[in-house]
Amino acid sequence: MPLIRLPDPSAPYPSEITPPEVYRDRRRFMQAGLALATLPWLAESAQAALSAQKSPLSTSEPMNKLSDITRYNNFYEFGTDKSDPAANAGSLNTRPWTVRVEGAVQTPRTFDLDALMALAPMEERIYRLRCVEGWSMVIPWIGFPLAALLKQVQPTAAGKFVEFVTLHDPKQMPGQRQPVLAWPYREGLRIDEAMHPLSLLTFGLYGEVLPRQNGAPVRLVVPWKYGFKSIKSIVAIRLVEKAPLTSWMQANPQEYGFFSNVNPEVDHPRWSQASERRIGELLKRKTLMFNGYADQVAGLYRGMDLRKYF
Length: 310
Hints:
8-stranded mixed β-sheet, alpha+beta, 10 helices, 5-stranded mixed β-sheet
């Protein structure tokens, strides 16, 4: 999700943060006398293991630490500061949870979370994440291809696009009390993007269920697009004939296009996209076309003017 401000200079570097293995050492925390209830991001990290098979689609690049991923992220439903999701997401109830899949499909269905998670084998996919603000991470997600879910409802010929909708409940998501965006948050993909093997319906990271601040209990991860396309805490998926109006397009259509593919040759009006700062590194690195996934996805956009369809 794109911020409309510069990256937070006060954000800690990984060298200043406890490594992930320490988070898993509950005994060490108990000995240290920490109160898990006051640290929702930490409590979530110790919640439940989620087994998954390794995926050949993973990058071999070093992963960011769990603390990077859970404490430095954008989720405006819990506030606009990078630290707000970890501080405020404890109010989100992730069970019971259902996802309605409807629209241009032969068999619309509502899945409860357990049924949804049982649809396909879980895989660990280590993906690069590139934020439109110019920072990036490498994250070990757990989930299965979005296509496995869409095939369950049998899209019709009219289902040319897929709209995704986040939970709208200001009591659980206090950031929705502020008119930052027109709530609920909405995103969209073209049907061939949604059916692409890299598009991941995601339930966990770092071997455990998703922390609330990272989009629990179910989110999307589309690694060749800017991070805000990977919508969090999904409650509805609709197959539609025309491209849906996404939340950021509605807020600022001059700055945010429908596709939002990572493209170092097309700058955002306020941020150069030529380079990025990997969280934990001092020097910037060059941004790769389609975030390094060009071999897999460039064919989806063959013949398109990517400056016009940004």
